[in-house]
Specification:
89 residues, mainly alpha, 81% helix
């Protein structure tokens, strides 16, 4: 069996770097989508609470939890941006 050539290692590392960047970008998009979804859910819970007679406290609580999750997702997305992988191979 022939030993691997130097160019083979560089190409393998380059592929790994490209895949890491792709996965990072995908995670960022998913995080943003989740934040938007949670914001929409919060709006729906608030609307339901305003139209429902009786105990709407539970719906307001759900809306607040959704807003909190959305805020956490936005913070995570910002953190991902600051950790954007930049590699030179």
């Amino acid at each position: 069996m022939d030993p691997p050539r130097a160019g083979d290692h560089a190409a393998a590392v380059q592929r790994l770097v490209a895949e890491a960047q792709m996965l990072h970008d995908r995670l960022h998009r998913i995080t943003i989508a989740l934040a938007l979804t949670e914001e929409m859910a919060a709006e729906i819970f608030d609307q339901a609470a305003s139209t429902q007679s009786g105990s709407s406290e539970h719906l307001h609580d759900q809306a607040e939890r959704a807003r909190s999750t959305a805020a956490e997702c936005r913070a995570f997305a910002l953190r991902l941006e600051s950790l954007r992988p930049v590699f030179e191979v």
